[in-house]
Amino acid sequence: MARRSSHRLLLLLLRYLVVALGYHKAYGLSAPKDHQVVTAIEYQEVILACKNPKKTISSRLEWKKLGRSVSFVYYQQALQGDFKDRAEMIDFSIRIKNVTRSDAGKYRCEVSAPSEQGQNLEEDTVTLEVLVAPAVPSCEVPSSALSGTVVELRCQDKEGIPAPEYTWFKDGNRLLENPKLGSQSTNSSYTMNTKSGTLQFNTISKLDSGEYFCEAQNSVGHSRCPGKRMQVDDLNISGIIAAVVVVTLVISVCGLGVCYAQRKGYFSKETSFQKGSSSSKAPTMSENDFKHTKSFII
């Protein structure tokens, strides 16, 4: 009795597996596959492979690019969009001849074919990563600076994928990330950030005068900005003091001149002269009025 019950249990399990496999084939629930990640350099070629066992006459293939909205790449046996001019089909795979950074993203190939149990659907997903070399970075280098101040030089690139690292050069020589390891003739007060591209002098000196340029580099390539000259001068304390003294003397002399003029009465004489001129004009007006009145009486 125990053997019969065990045989029945095995038969039930086998039937369940057969039904499950039939459902699996009928509704296209394929076994999960390893997710592919393909890396390509911009403007080179890349192949997006659809790992499908065999291609049959009745197989239908579709390629889609996934994202916020799904777009067809290969549909109804034809490449779509701009892939018409720069891609070709190799069985189930797509060969892109001139890949661009806009091609980066997730793609899915779907292969459907009729079977005895119904329509069988298999899928495969590929992620395309496009690497881009850095462009000419934008460099900010001041043309002049005062000794003893804080000065920051900036370098940035917005094109490189992955994000590049930055290196600064002075007079054609590479600056070390750790300035204490350099020669004693160079200023060791600077701080260089290879990630952000900044070169900061905490206390700049005349030794830091020179031509500076920056290089951006990632795994694809590198690029440099044109060199720019930075001149560091000492603060002329004596000249500033002399200028202040001269201005003070000029103001003092002008003040003394005004006081002297007031004591001598130059300002009061000018006022009395103005009063005298106005009083001399008054009799003339009255004399004219008198003549006019006399002629009117006559």
Give structural notes:
This protein is an alpha+beta fold and 298 residues long. Helix content is 30%, strand content 33%. The protein has helices at 2-26, 83-86, 237-264, 266-297, and strands at residues 36-41, 46-48, 60-66, 71-74, 87-90, 93-96, 105-115, 118-131, 138-140, 144-146, 151-156, 165-170, 173-174, 190-193, 198-201, 210-217, 222-224, 228-233. The strands form four sheets. Strands 10, 12, 13, 16, 17 and 18 form a six-stranded mixed sheet that branches. Strand 7 (105-115) and strand 8 form a beta hairpin. The radius of gyration is 45 Å and the shape is elongated. The N and C termini lie far apart (171 Å). The model is unreliable at 16-32, 279-286 and 289-298 (pLDDT under 50).
Task: Name a few traits of the molecule.
18 strands, alpha+beta, five-stranded mixed β-sheet, disordered C terminus
Query: How would you sum up the major sheet?
Result: 6 strands, mixed
Kindly name the structural category. Answer: alpha+beta
Number of distinct beta strands: 18
Mean pLDDT: 78
Topology as a string of helices (H) and strands (E): HEEEEHEEEEEEEEEEEEEEHH
Shape: elongated
- Helicity range of the residues? 25-40%
How much β-strand is present in the residues? 25-35%
Distance between the termini: 171 Å
Could you state the oligomeric state of the chains shown? single chain
Regions with little confidence, pLDDT below 50 for 5+ residues: 16-32, 279-286, 289-298
Please state the CA-atom Rg, rounded to the nearest Å: 45 Å
The total of helices stands at 4
Pfam families: Ig_3 (PF13927), V-set (PF07686)
GO molecular function: integrin binding
Domain Ig-like: 32-127, 134-238
Membrane topology: Single-pass type I membrane protein
